[in-house]
Amino acid sequence: MNNLKEYNFTIDKKSRNSLNKHDSFVVWFTGLSGSGKSTICNSLEVRLNERGVNTITLDGDSVRNGLNKDLNFSNEDRSENIRRVAEVSKLFIDAGVVVLTSFISPFEKDRNLAREIIGDNNFLEIFVNTSLETCMHRDVKGLYAKSKSGELDNMTGIDSIYEAPKSPMIEIKENFELDQSVKMIFTLIENKLKLND
Asked: Is residue 160 flagged as an active site residue?
């Protein structure tokens, strides 16, 4: 590690943001499986792209099918999953891209580490606060059913804890309409984008 020295490249985040005509940062969605994180994330990305914003969405399934396919769902590997996502997000921010992440990220310490890696000013935490009962009823991926039948261990909300954020930038409640949720988030980040139309 002592032999590492980062090269001071001429083109930096500021240059790329100027080229893209908007600032870059991370919108970090957290909540239980089935809470609606990916649905909201997807709709927000569509709206941002309509405004000419360069985006990338990172979500649990896509990342675990590639970058993090060596990880399981132990507490240690969940933490490593989030650490890697934070590091990748930081690279995308430096590339001038607005990053939308959709991860359960159940542990407060891991979200705090992600915030530290990414930078507090570049980390917008969105808590999609949907009750466990509603998530189990939706059971979009069939994971709760597998957990109930004993086929799946360490299911967040069942036999693995979820630590809800204490002070997220926005809390999306389960009775909110999709358009209402997206509008709330877009309003929050619109000024931060500093769009130059």
From this structure: no
Q: What is the pLDDT of residues 63-95, one digit of tens each?
A: 888 889 999 888 999 999 999 999 999 999 999
pLDDT tens across 114-140, in order? 999 999 999 999 999 999 999 999 988
DSSP-derived secondary structure for 80-140: HHHHHHHHHHHHHHHTT-EEEEE-----HHHHHHHHHHH-GGGEEEEEEE--HHHHHHH-T
Question: Catalytic one among 89, 102, 105, 147?
Answer: 105
Q: What is the pTM for the complete model shown?
A: 0.92
Q: Enumerate residues 6+ apart whose C-beta is below 8 A from 175.
A: none
* pLDDT confidence of residue 140: 86
Structural domains of the chain, with CATH: 16-189 (3.40.50.300)
User: Helix, strand or coil for residue 161?
Assistant: coil
Q: Choose among 48, 29, 90: nearest CA to 193.
A: 48
User: What is 47-62 written as a DSSP string?
Assistant: HHHHTT--EEEEEHHH
Q: What is the pLDDT of residue 196?
A: 57
Separation CA 15–CA 11 (nearest Å): 6
